[in-house]
Amino acid sequence: MELTALLFSLAALPLAMSETVLGVYIFSRHGDRTPKALAPANLTSLGADEVYSSGNYYRSRYVDSNATSPIFGLSSDIAVAGQMTVTAPADAVLQNSAQAFMSGLYPPVGALSTQALANDSSVESPLGGYQYIPINTVSTASSSADSENSAWLQGNSGCGNAVVSSNNYFLSSEYTSTFDDTKSFYSDLLPVINSTFDAKQATFKNAYTIFDYVHVATIHNSTIPSSDLLTNETLTQLQLLANAHEWGLAYNSTDTIRAVAGSTLAAQIVQQLNSTLNSKSAQPFGIQFGAYASFLSFFGLAQLQNVSAEFTGIVDYAAAMTFELVTNATVSGSEYPSPDDVSVRFLFANGTAAQIEPRAYPLFGQSETLLPWNTFASEMGKFAIGTTAEWCQACGNTTGQCASSTSTDSGGGDAAASSTSGKGNGISLPVAGVIGALVTLVVILGAEAAIYAISGLRLVKKSTLAQAGSGAGITTAGAKA
């Protein structure tokens, strides 16, 4: 009897220790697309289905009325625009991926969209109640407009020091030795790729573009010229070489400005999660679609390469990293936890989440996958670039808007705005996305560099293939999509 009474009393207690998700931030790559070498690149039906499936998975995890980890206060059926921020560059592949993802996250609502009119008739929204969710266009250091048609990009921000750093990779012994060692490997592939690449272009210099071209062909083409050359070993080697090439361009442990895309992304992540805390989850959901090299840059800065070699390779289509803001404290309409009671969990799915379950990994060399909010924000702050003044100083830029920023920095300005604040439910970090809109000029890099005019959206136009040659540098470097 005593045991029965105890069980009943325990059942009556509130589940104070159950975890509540206060908000999430997701950074996702686009779905399958046509190859960069055959611009303009377009999202394929397969690619749309991949990101749609991922959106549907995250719906079952965070949004649905029966979600396994429902986000506090988030509408489960009817999308409320004010509760979320959805962003993607003006690039068509990334914008369309965002739309397909959101269709999976908030699918058509059917009868729920029916409205009664004054004349006693009713009308249902088109396409079965399809939900039109705004996708904000951004141009930031993590991605740019038309990025899927550009073979070489460096965060598309015009960050001078990052461009120099990435160009230094082409002068490194690591690059030059690999270039020399793989000459025959790439020349042997010419029968497969010679409709697009000539003999001078078939080198390690174009490791990613060649891999991308062949990779897309193996997915979509029923017949490939000289396909007998594409053995499993050859395909694996193409992937590994592309991985090494892109990792070398996106991150360097002794020169972290190379990872400027990851630094500005880090600021955006903290800004969004901090906004969730400050608003008491009024805007708990944020997602951005961007370049795969931004993943690599962030992985390096967050020390994830020490956790798994997976984090040094090109992420698959529809791959996504998620940052969950969680608490075990009581959360209700009148009660909201303080920052001291909030933690962050990092999850990564290397591909469509519907097929590859997102998995938690420890950040910053920590042993635990759940970090206190203040620890997370502090660690991110060590490499995040969140203001114009910080960006200009880190990049060594002094022209354009950086000239104005430099002249006014002594008065506090943006630099002061980046400091930690004890007010509200988190730290104050300005939106990192303003960086891309403010920077208008790429620095001049010696005799090898070219001057690129950058528009308001910083549309970067380059040839789809880089010129071959072991000694040649590039004027923009590695944040590709």
Fold and architecture overview:
It contains 17 helices and 10 strands. It has 481 residues and is an alpha/beta fold. The chain has 2 domains: 293 residues, Phosphoglycerate mutase-like (Rossmann fold), CATH 3.40.50; 92 residues. Strand 3 and strand 4 form a beta hairpin.
Query: Which fold name corresponds to the CATH topology of the largest domain?
Result: Rossmann fold
Helix content: 25-40%
Q: List SSEs in N-to-C order.
A: HEHEHEEHEHHHHHHHEHEEEEHHHHH
Strand content: 5-15%
The tally of strands reads 10
Terminal residue distance: 65 Å
Number of domains: 2
Rounded to the nearest angstrom, the radius of gyration is 24 Å
List its salient traits.
single chain; Rossmann fold; 481 residues; Histidine_acid_phosphatase; alpha/beta; Uu.00g014560.m01.CDS01; disordered C terminus; 2 domains; signal; two-stranded antiparallel sheet; 17 helices; eight-stranded mixed sheet; 10 strands; phosphatase activity
